[in-house]
Amino acid sequence: MAELNFDALKLSIAALEQGLEEHAQYPQLLTVRDGVIQRFEVAVDISQKLIRRVLQEVYQMEPARIAKNAMREAAGMALIADAERWIGHVNARNETSHIYDASKANAIFERIPGFLPDSTRPKTASSVWMCAWTAKRRG
Prior knowledge:
The protein is mainly alpha-helical. It is about 75% helix and about 0% strand. It is built from six helices and no strands. It is elongated, with a radius of gyration of 16 Å. The model is unreliable at about 120-125 (pLDDT under 50). Pfam families: NTase_sub_bind. This is Nucleotidyltransferase substrate binding protein, HI0074 family. InterPro entries: HepT. GO terms for molecular function: transferase activity.
């Protein structure tokens, strides 16, 4: 069992925040908007992988159980505050693969600022996951 590393998550969240700041400066540039959407994709992917890994390695959940209900299981273990919001983030991330028109891109972009507090609030912060990881390793 390798140590959990949250560096990629921290970097992806910082990149997403920077992208949103750049978009605020240059809202007319579609390339900036599209870059923010791509950074959102990466941040959600990394978050999902960490959540799944914690559920499997720390809480000993079966992969099949995690695959079906990862966000609900994570909320049940207090790793995230709101499963439905996270399911919405994951669904929006999945839609990014199918962006063919501006209205879909704009709808996804509008959701992104709400992802940041969910990804950084105390219940989802790496400190909680690290506490769970450390407790499991000691036990």
